[in-house]
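User: Sequence in, structure out. Go.
Assistant: Echoing your sequence, followed by the C-alpha cells.
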Amino acid sequence: MGCITKHYLNKETIIGVWKIEEDIPALLEMVALGPEDLSRYEIFRSTSRKLEFLSVRALLSEMLGKDARIVYNKNNKPFIKDGSHFISITHSNKLTAILISKDERVGIDLEYMRMNINAFASKFLNKKEKITRRWSDRTYHLYIHWCAKEAIYKICDKEGINIVTDITIEPFVVRESGEIRGSVKNERIDDQFTLFYSKYDNYTIVWTKKKHEG
C-alpha cells in the first residue's frame, strides 16, 4: 500500500505513515540506499527488520525526496544527514511513521495494541499516573501512556532517562483522540510537553513537538 497519509501539522512539520504490504524486492525498488544505509541493512537477519528499515527509507523518500539520508548519533537517535529537519521514527507490526520538522524538535511513537499490556504495565507506569478502571478503555489508556513516554524519550536527546521514574504523564480521560501533558525530570533535565494521541485501526499513535532553542 505504501504511504497512506502525509499530515501537515504546520507548514514546517509533517507526519507520514506507511502501511507495509510490499515484499523486500518491491521496497528495494522504491529506495536508493547509500553506503551507510547498505552497511546497516546488511546487519539485519529477519525479514521483519528489513521490511521496517526499507519502509522507513521509502516513506522518507515520499516526504523529502530520494536524496534524503538518515544518520544516527552514539545513542542511536536518528538525524537527517544534511541537517535540514529534525526527525523521529517509529514502527510496529505493519505500520511505519515518521515525524519531521524544520524548526521543532519532534518525538513520535506508535504501537499495535495487544491485550497483554496489562501484564507489564508496572514496567512503564509510576505511582503518580492514573489508569481508568473501565475495562473497555483500559488497554487503549495504557498504550497511550506507553507511546507518550516513548515519544518524550525520543524528543529528549539525553542519556540516562528512566522511562518509569523520570517521565510522568498527567491524568486524563481517555477518548478516541486528544491532547495530554507529560514531563521529564531528573538531575540533567526538567521539561514539559504537550502530546497528541489518536487511534488508527488497532494502533495507538502519540506525537509531540517543541520549538528548538538554540
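User: And one key feature?
Assistant: The helical segments are 24-30, 35-41, 47-64, 135-155.
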